[in-house]
Amino acid sequence: MKDLAYLISSCLDEHDCEAYETALLDTYFDALTKALHRRNHAITHTDIDAIIDCWRPLYPVAWTDFFRFLQGWSPNHWKIHAYSERLAQETIAQYDSK
């Protein structure tokens, strides 16, 4: 999920990250599903659903980790914006409540 977060953050501005997040994640997981079926014909939809259920929630965690890194490495970096801040706050709140 880190590579996906890095790719999206490198290709899109703040507005587009927000606007296309769901569509990009859906596209990624659709492509992953097809690739898994091509490589392993025995894999089931249940197996793939389990992978997606495990990996998809890690996207904001990966983004938050990258955001944390950027804040220390280059505090004025263009990738530090409201979208990154929102994901970080939501991720932190999610783990603070556990």
Question: Structural class, from helix and strand content?
Answer: mainly alpha
Q: What Rg, in angstroms, do the CA atoms define?
A: 15 Å
Low-confidence regions: none
Instruction: Give me the number of helical elements.
Output: 5
Largest sheet: none
How many runs of DSSP E, i.e. beta strands?
0
Separation of the first and last Cα atoms: 22 Å
Sketch the topology as an H/E string, one letter per element: HHHHH
Specify the overall morphology.
globular
Q: Roughly what is the average pLDDT, rounded to an integer? A: 94
Roughly how much helix do the residues carry, as a percent range? over 70%
Strand residues, percent: under 5%
What does this structure look like?
The chain has 98 residues and is an all-alpha fold. The protein contains 5 helices and no strands. It has helices at residues 2-11, 14-39, 45-55, 58-73, 82-96. The longest helix has 26 residues, at 14-39.
